[in-house]
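Service request form, structural biology core

Requester: graduate student, group of Dr. S.
Request type: structure prediction, single chain
Budget code: on file
Notes: please return the result as structure tokens.

Sequence provided:
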Amino acid sequence: VRESRERVRSALRNCGFDLPPRAVTINLAPADLRKEGNHLDLAIALALLAANGALPSEALEGRLFCGELGLDGSVRSVRGGLAIADLGRRLECRELLLPAANAGEAAATGALTVHGISAVNEAVGHLLGSAPLAETASLAAWELDANFPAGGTDFAEIRGQEAAKRALEVAAAGGHNLLLIGPPGAGKTLMARALPSILPPLTLAEAIAVTKIHSLVAEKPPAGLLRRRPFRAPHPGVSSAGMVGGGPIPRPGEVSLAHGGVLFLDELAEFHRDALEALRQPLEEGQVTVVRARAWLQFPARFTLLAAMNPCPCGHLGDARRPCRCPLPAIERYRARVSGPLLDRIDLHVEVPALRLQDLKERPQQNSATLAARIGAAREIQRARFPPDHPAPVNASLTASEIHRECPVAPAGQELLDTAFERLGLSARALHRVLKVARTIADLAGAPGIESPHLAEAIQYRSLDRRLGK
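Core staff response, request fulfilled:
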């Protein structure tokens, strides 16, 4: 912030304002909060003009200012324009003046008047009333276009792997976490890239939350609200701070940048252990808490985890055409890189076999549009189970008490569930996840209750539990 002294002085001088040759003290309160960044330049400059009589002090009341100043008096963009607008709403400000590059995203809240400015003179003219600024159009009534391209690979391009594609449909419908296990070349990454094409569009509230996060880290401010659900695919070398957020100036990590969308971890076993274990809290709570010596921050992190890994170090375990030569201890060490508690938080474990030549010749019967229609209908059913303001109205967000209320099981299905619990050695968390997945399968079928076929399909998606249970 000390650097702003020269920027403010030079900007005011180049805009025709003379500052008296005397010492100036600027008090940034509260004193115990560390001030960093370029957001305060414009506010400091206007406060100086008011202190020197160039502006009436009452002109500043009820207004919020932010922006970086150039030496020539221009106002440059800052990060977090939408978050700043939300702050203005909570402070009950009547107007927000910020860089023109940030005005589009800031107007999305629709709760206060937003003016975009390009130079200090424009702000002064507006405050004096000599040159009022036009209000940036509010996006409060903005609606998502259902035909807006979702992006990603179309499911019509995926050959074979019907079981895995069905699991992706279930995961997309209920917001469930999914792990794909199979040899190289089986299509795991291709299917993962196709998941965004079947996800429903962002709601207005979700779009505001997603844009707010991305505007904090984006090099270029978004022109408006982000419409597509995020799809993040970090490299296996990502650090724990890069995964969940942190740093000297805490910033959102990959789990927060994937909020409202998909976090894809390819080659799951190759990620650092601490980065994977850091996923436990956001997978359970939908948020990340970053604690530093001078800061305590919470970032939202409600995402669908999609992971892929090989069954063994060479990748060919279970492949009939390429025999695996990995010794059993090596396979066990490889799989132990992903801890049991993390696997317990993944709802669906699906084995993806190697493709046959016949699979490559068959033409897929379903495309992304067909799947997206079914998933949209299932999500409408789920939305009725939650309050209107719930942040994630999907079955994956059901609490223990809500599971007992929304997932009743018939006597025949309860017997099947009891048998699976004993034979597979399921934990209480895994049992609840089976019920939530079965609820989603029933929603896709339009069934009012969970029946035995729905439970049987949900249980067979716990392949790693089935193996450990033996």
